[in-house]
Design brief:
With 259 residues, this protein is of the alpha/beta class. The protein is 24% helix and 25% strand. It has helices spanning 21-24, 46-56, 77-86, 129-151, 184-193, 223-226, and strands at residues 2-7, 33-37, 63-66, 90-91, 95-101, 104-111, 117-118, 121-122, 156-161, 197-200, 209-211, 217-220, 231-236, 239-245. The strands form 3 sheets. The protein has a 6-stranded mixed beta sheet, covered by helices on one side. Strand 2, helix 2 (46-56) and strand 3 form a beta-alpha-beta unit. Helix 2 runs parallel beside helix 3 and helix 4 runs parallel beside helix 5 (184-193). The longest helix has 23 residues, at 129-151. The chain is globular and about 50 Å long. The chain binds fe (ii) ion (2 copies). One fe (ii) ion is lined by residues 9, 11, 39, 68, 70, 201-202, 204, 257, 259.
């Protein structure tokens, strides 16, 4: 049994230091790994990254993160990465990490993902250079994801990303912005490569539960959605067993960001 704690969109500001800290002590009693699904910061400043790193320092299980769109806003993502790595957090950007949990190998495949939309309402790789560039950014990530999942040799495969691979978990968001919230190409890659669980964020007004067309469970762990410092998902060979929210009282929404 593997216990995965996940949250996205914690959106730390420079004054957020201490906000998550009280909930992170003793995390090893309820989870084997803590995954952060991007939008770690509000405007992507090093100072915000440092505030989050100071809180994550106390986590006693491996912490693995991906960046979200907010973390790129100020062009300081290398500084944010350095702060996080300084306290032992692994930041994945089209890369993967292999853990061992009670004799089982757990592969975490991490990427930001990108937009483009979903079946029947998606951008296409056609026309202006700007549109091609937009769609090809997602295509390249989807191709990488499919190949990485195919080649990854692990008992459990977990995809950690910021954008959504499915529209299920976007219910509650305005349909007009779905193309900026994720892409079906990512779900196709997950189904082709195989995975046991996908965690994403970015859709603050969405819902928690969805699945790829191939049946891989997808969970939107954006903090404004789960309203807790993390949810814990328990995996075993029979698939996703159960989700346990953090026992603490529900948290208020972190900041004003929309996605
Ligand atoms: Fe986002
Ligand atoms: Fe966000």
């Amino acid at each position: 049994m593997i216990r995965v704690a996940g949250v996205g969109d914690v959106h730390y500001g420079k004054d957020s230091r201490g906000r998550l800290a009280p909930y992170l002590d003793g995390l090893d009693r309820v989870a084997d790994v803590y995954l952060l699904a991007g939008d770690l910061t509000q405007v992507g400043s090093v100072e915000e990254g440092r505030a989050l790193a100071d809180d994550l320092r106390r986590v006693s299980v491996p912490v693995i993160a991906v960046f979200g769109n907010h973390d790129f806003h100020s062009g300081q993502e290398s500084g944010i990465r350095a702060s996080l790595e300084g306290v032992g957090v692994k930041v994945l950007e089209q890369s993967s990490s292999l853990l061992e949990v009670r004799g089982k190998s757990v592969g975490i495949v991490g990427l930001k993902g990108f937009g483009g939309g979903f079946w029947g309402a998606c951008a296409t790789d056609f026309g202006e250079a700007e549109m091609k560039s937009f769609v090809r950014t997602t295509k390249r990530q989807a191709e990488w994801l499919r190949e990485r999942l195919r080649s990854l040799n692990a008992d459990y495969k977990i995809v950690l990303m910021h954008y959504s691979p499915v529209s299920d978990t976007l219910a509650g968001e305005k349909k007009e912005i779905y193309p900026f919230l994720g892409s079906y190409l990512l779900a196709e890659a997950i189904d082709a490569g195989g995975a046991d669980l996908v965690l994403h964020g970015h859709a603050h007004h969405g819902i928690e539960k969805g699945a790829t067309p191939g049946g891989v469970p997808v969970r939107n762990v954006a903090m404004p959605v789960i309203r807790h410092p993390f949810n814990v998902y328990t995996l075993n060979k029979g698939g996703l067993v159960q989700a346990h929210p953090h026992p603490a009282a529900a948290l208020a929404e972190p900041g004003e960001a929309d996605m």
